[in-house]
Design goal:
24% helix, seven-stranded mixed sheet, 4 iron, 4 sulfur cluster binding, alpha/beta, 4Fe-4S, oxidoreductase, Rossmann fold, Dimethylsulfoxide Reductase, domain 2, Mopterin_OxRdtase, Tetrathionate reductase subunit A, N-terminal domain of TfIIb
Length: 940
């Protein structure tokens, strides 16, 4: 029989060359091997030597081959010739395009730089784009974090100097209990999949907290189908149970947190709630050994968690007292919170008991000697094998900042941060708030901004306000409305610019930000704002410049299009100055480089910014004699120094052997390419845990250029900057909030994490709108550009609205039915599907699957355009009117993060329409419609 079997080549020749670079099909930044035949891409696989993915590659990464050949790719610079929104353009040369942009930008730079609003999407080069905006002089710059995950980032920075995702990861080698909160499948997907596989293989348990049981939650050993927006209440109940049972790490709290720091306890004092500080300004504690008052970091000090201290008749109490009073309160008992959270009291107790058992009964030690910042040498490291991870699901609520802080407090009281088995920071984190800049907003004609746009405020003195108290930024970031908005408020830019509140702008300049469709709340309204004209027939937003690689929905609303390349056709820098690819045991960065040359008249956006800077002669980009410092982005990557010896890339500096610090190396990019597109420097053994307090790590970080000097610090369970805002709201200090915001600041900017009702729950009639509605990103898609991909479309070509069994049966739905979904802001009619593993009062759908007809080179009858839909049509950037004459932002009041997941709706069975509603008229695309049959084959 075997004699007649056909011969099968099990190892076919797939390429004649392999070029190694970095994937960009999501934010994972995995290493990839791009197989080439005849100079064209034939196949993409994972790079087994890469520190992020170690050869693993997902469906998105493999489908990159279809992304770089997508029919929707823009082909040349475009100038609008029809009405805005018509999609009518003419192709122009790059010389003309750059000249038009300079003709618009140069006059406002010379007169009023704030007339430029420059906001970017998921470009992963924010240190560079921010540097460009700073040298232009506009205060109006930020990226997409304000509508994505600023609550997660800022909550972590203000509490412990780092957060989840790019800031850190579980100790996959030692953790025994892994708990996820609000995690979908789109961020950090390959490392998490690899990590879950590793820990489950050795018997570790996984608990998933998410209203939706998909992806990681589907493989969890225990699923908590929580009510949206109540994660913080659940977490505080876990803290209550742990503190009540005494299952907290008192030694860790005393040594490494501000739990023992003394706080002014006199309600009549203008410094009530502030730390008692010494003459050097350091927070003070009582030394357990001597009983004396001393700085928290004094050599040999053993901070006391219980001692009080009196100064001038005022008693000062340790933060630990305040925490005990707060979280042992019966309001956080499981019986008090369970019904609201959609969890039984018994389940809350059981999870708290499991966390405590693993953290303390299964604790272990590693024989690694290390010396802490107080000079004490420890012979071992204590491991607590419980780790947590969280993402947008908990942060995209109006109470998300406090929820993120609550989760970090939970980690910290267990002693599971930066210890074996727990959560570990990735360089350049951890960084205390003091190591970050404050936001800057002072601008002047023809001058650069006075410092970085974004940062972390320490108190009201750092707010971005003009001399008259009005917002300095178009998005109102760093104002009394959202004081700690570390990433800006991209979702408010267009509506504020349209309203002229706080002022009018001249030019809106955006990159990779699909604001007329899936990246905007109130989608229909935003489209109207972009096309609205004043009484003179002029556009209310006078000029719009947009850059994208593809013919997205936003392209039609721009006046000038600067076409970007795809990710395999350009230089990119995944930098330690920005969003690096580090792992907990190593600092790492990476590049992208043109493994193929564009077959269109397109340029990498970062290079276009360099060319614009050269034409505008921006400082920072121009030498004293007026000549350009950099010719393109690759030149910038190699030769730019943010400070002496510190540049965008940390590897192969100087003579090619310097690490972290060193002079620019002309051959640096070549060395990266030779090394597989990345650089990695491992943390010395013994320095890789206890990073905030481990002097071996601190010294290593100085050598790497992360710090200029060691910066050990303690975790902020109690966030003093928040108390400073409360004091201002109580009438203390020179800088005062407007009266209508005083009560909100006093109640919500609590320095200890609290929980409050999501804003939409208190703004709409929840009996009329009883159902929670969410979106979630699928593992096979990353934001809008995935659904143009010929391979990925076969996985997610359309998206139903998933209903839980309770609602499915209550409304009598059957397979193939449609529903009318109504919110306080809008209405959609969409196909529905039944899903049992779902919170009983929650509906959800995949995000960004729906497309507008005419966009992305898809046919008008494509399933994405006829059955696909967005929940965005039901959401608004403003809350419904309260009757107080004000319109409140649909955002977290502390950071300004868009509260996408607060949405409340009602569901009704509906007649099936011809297509999902609302249906918008097709837009004309400059690239037209792609072929019905798309095939890409290289070689024989």
């Amino acid at each position: 029989m075997t004699h007649h079997q056909p011969h099968i080549d099990t190892s076919p020749h797939v390429s004649d060359e392999v070029r190694k670079t970095t994937c960009y099909m999501c934010a994972c930044r995995c290493g990839i091997n791009v197989h080439m035949k005849g100079g064209k891409v034939a196949y993409i696989e994972g790079n087994r030597d890469h520190p992020v993915n170690k050869g693993v590659l997902c469906a998105k990464g493999s489908a990159g081959i279809m992304q770089v050949n997508a029919p929707s790719r823009l082909r040349a610079p475009l100038k609008r010739v029809g009405p805005r929104g018509s999609g009518e353009f003419e192709e122009i040369s790059w010389d003309e395009a750059l000249q038009i942009a300079c003709d618009w930008l140069e006059p406002i730079r010379k007169t009023d730089p704030s007339k430029l609003a420059f906001f970017t999407g998921r470009d992963q080069s924010q240190s560079f784009t921010g540097y460009w905006a700073q040298n232009f002089g506009t205060p109006n710059f930020a990226a997409h974090g304000g509508f994505c995950s600023v609550n997660m980032a800022a909550g972590g920075i203000y509490t412990m100097g780092g957060a989840f995702w790019e800031f850190g990861q579980p100790d996959w080698d030692h953790t025994k209990l892994f708990m996820l909160f609000g995690v979908a499948e789109d961020h950090d997907s390959n490392p998490i999949k690899m990590g879950i596989g590793k820990i489950k293989a050795r018997g570790a348990r996984v608990i998933g907290v998410n209203p939706i049981r998909s992806g990681y939650n589907a493989v969890a050993d225990d699923w908590v189908g929580i009510t949206p927006g109540t994660d913080g209440l659940f977490i505080l109940s876990l803290i209550h149970e742990l503190m009540r049972a005494g299952k907290i790490d008192l030694d860790y709290l005393a040594r490494y947190t501000n739990a023992p720091v003394l706080v002014n306890a006199d309600p009549n004092s203008p410094e009530h709630g502030l730390f008692l500080r010494d003459t050097d300004g350091k927070p003070t504690v009582i030394d357990r050994t001597t009983g004396k008052l001393t700085a928290f970091d004094a050599p040999g000090v053993r901070p006391d968690l219980s001692a009080t201290h009196e100064v001038d008749g005022i008693t000062h109490r340790p933060v630990m007292h305040l925490m005990a009073e707060r979280y042992l309160d019966p309001q956080y008992a499981p019986e008090a919170v369970a019904e609201r959270c959609g969890i039984t009291p018994d389940k809350i107790r059981r999870i708290a008991a499991e966390i405590a058992r693993v953290a303390f009964d299964e604790a272990f030690t590693l024989d690694h000697e290390w010396t802490d910042f107080r000079g004490e040498t420890h012979k071992t490291m204590t491991g607590r094998p419980v780790s947590f991870h969280a993402m947008r699901g908990i942060s995209a609520h109006s109470n998300g900042f406090q929820t993120a802080r609550a989760l970090h407090v939970l980690q910290i009281i267990l002693g599971t941060v930066e210890v074996p088995g727990g959560f570990r920071f990735k360089p350049p984190y951890p960084k205390p708030v003091s190591a970050h800049p404050t936001p800057h907003c002072k601008f002047a004609p023809g001058q650069p901004l006075d410092g970085p746009h974004l940062g972390f405020v320490r108190g009201p003195e750092d707010l971005a306000l003009k001399d008259d108290g009005s917002p300095a930024r178009i998005d109102k970031a760093f104002t009394w409305e959202n004081p700690m908005s570390a990433h800006g408020l991209m979702h408010m830019v267009i509506s504020n610019a349209h309203a002229g509140d706080p002022y009018k702008i001249d030019t809106l300049f955006m990159y990779m930000a699909n604001m007329s469709w899936n990246s905007s709340m109130n989608t229909r309204g935003v489209m109207e704002m972009l096309t609205d004209q004043d009484e003179n027939g002029d556009y209310v937003i006078p000029r719009i410049i947009y850059s994208d690689a593809y013919s997205s929905e936003m392209v039609a609303y721009a006046d000038l299009i600067l076409p970007d390349t795809t990710y395999l056709e350009r230089h990119d820098c995944i930098s330690l100055l920005d969003r690096p690819i580090c792992e907990a045991d190593a600092a790492a960065d990476a590049i992208r480089w043109p493994v193929i040359e564009p077959d269109r008249d397109v340029r990498g956006f970062q290079t276009v910014l360099v060319q614009l800077a050269n034409k505008l002669k921006l400082p920072g980009f121009t030498a004293e004699d007026g000549t350009p410092r950099y010719q393109d982005y690759a030149d910038y990557m190699v030769n730019h120094e943010r400070k002496p010896g510190i540049g965008p890339l940390a590897g192969f500096r100087g003579n090619g052997e310097d690490v972290g610090r060193g002079a620019p190396n002309p051959a640096q990019i070549d060395r990266y390419i030779e090394n597989g597109g990345f650089f990695v420097s491992h943390i010395p053994e013994g320095a890789n845990y206890y990073k905030p307090w481990n002097m071996a790590y601190q010294d290593w970080a100085v050598g790497m250029g992360i710090f200029d000097k060691p910066q050990p610090y303690i975790f902020d369970l109690y966030a003093e900057p928040m108390r400073k805002f409360q004091l201002a709201a109580e009438g203390h200090g020179d800088r005062q909030p407007p009266d209508h915001l005083r009560a909100r600041i006093k109640s919500m900017m609590d320095p200890l994490p609290i929980w409050y009702l999501p804003f939409e729950d208190s703004s709409v009639d929840t009996e009329e709108f009883p159902v929670h509605a969410l979106t979630q990103r699928p593992m096979a898609m990353y934001h809008s550009w995935g659904t143009q991909n010929a391979w990925l479309r076969q996985i997610h070509g359309q998206n139903p609205l998933y209903l839980p069994t309770k609602l499915w049966e209550e409304h009598g739905f059957t397979d193939g039915d449609w529903a009318r979904v109504t919110s306080a802001h809008g209405e959609i009619t969409v196909p529905v599907a039944h899903m049992a593993a779902l919170n009983e009062n929650t509906v959800w759908t995949w995000n960004a699957i729906g497309k507008r007809k005419g966009a992305w080179a898809l046919s008008e009858d494509a399933p994405e355009a006829t059955r696909g839909f967005l929940l965005n049509h039901l959401i608004h950037e403003l809350l419904p009117p309260k009757g107080d004459g004000l319109r409140w932002s649909n955002s977290d009041p502390i950071t300004g993060q868009a509260a996408w997941f607060d949405l409340r709706v009602k569901i009704e069975k509906a007649q099936a329409p011809a297509e999902s509603q609302p249906a918008f008229a097709p837009i004309k695309s400059p690239v037209g419609q792609g072929p019905d049959h798309l095939e890409w084959k290289v070689g024989k």
